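W.,

You were right to be curious about this one. When I first looked at the sequence I had no strong expectations either way, so I just let the prediction run and decided to look at it fresh. Below is the sequence, 250 residues in total, followed by the output.
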Amino acid sequence: MCGFGPGTVYLVVLPAAHNFALACPGILGVLATGGTVVLAPSGSPDEAFPLIERERATVCAVVPPIALLWLDAVSWAEEDVSSLELLQVGGAKFAAERAAEVPETLGCRVQQVFGMAEGLLNYTRLDDPRDIVEQSQGRPLSPADEIRIVDENGADVAPGEIGELLTRGPYTLRGYYRAPSTTRARSPPAASTAPATSCGGCRPATWSSRDARRTRSTAAATRSPRRNWRTTCSPTRPCTTPPSSASPTR
């Protein structure tokens, strides 16, 4: 997925307790594969670039504002950042035209990542075509992840239409700890019986949702600021595309 191994030197410029830097696959993934973790005070080029040069960092996870700053700073920075092999970008949509600049300007590949604390992680793969890497935020991490895109009434929207993202899978949270009434109150209607219309064959579980209009977070239902989600599978039948090659999240 990310190519981590004993030779990986992971530079942490985001808060280390944040899911992205900690476990997507982050610090835990690097340590689990025998790699090295380097902690930086911030993502500022003045602080990050010297560490890349000194520690020969190979991977770093950033948010789009940091990526944009690095793309500009590399033209005047004196440090050698040629050891960098992979720049993971997540937390927000990274503009396709700027993502296309990363290989030439920073000399490394870019991997787009989308995820949420309650579950569902999407990655572009290292061998994905260039247009997928630049224009999407990948496809689900697990073959057991399921995705639906629905309208305000909970009905599946047609391919290409904008709607609310519903997801469930083996690592999506089932509910609030010791708060069953809160979990019930904030779960999507008929959450446990909604039919699957996307990739994978996950276990029965509660759907988690991402709304296009407002923020409301629950352990089983997450609603975030507006995102233009579009269908990538048929709304009337389960997706038959193998999970390993399922359509990316755009």
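Here's what jumped out at me. The domain at 9-140 is CATH 3.40.50.980 (Rossmann fold). And, maybe more interesting for your project: Residues 45-55 form the longest helix (11 residues).

Coffee later to discuss?

I.
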